[in-house]
Design goal:
Length: 78
């Protein structure tokens, strides 16, 4: 299963599950990264440490280690 870090700039996917726990899970879900939400990779910082994603009409920036916890549905990319 692919996670958010697997999206290239301009690619879109649909959230299947968030594997983070505790406060980080709550934060990601509060940002709109809930199952079924469409998410698009908008920008990537040089070095790949952070990326910006469009989700539910807003832009959120995530560190790679946090983006890895957001899994995408199979066959919903591109």
């Amino acid at each position: 299963m692919r996670d958010l870090t697997g999206l290239n700039i301009g690619e879109e996917g649909r959230v299947a599950w968030v594997t983070a726990r505790g406060g980080m899970r709550r934060r990601l879900m509060d940002l709109g990264l809930t199952p079924g939400a469409r998410v698009r990779c908008l920008l990537a910082a040089p070095g790949g440490g952070m990326r910006a994603y469009g989700v539910r009409g807003t832009v959120v920036a995530l560190r790679a280690k946090d983006a890895e916890t957001v899994l995408l549905e199979e066959g919903r990319h591109g």
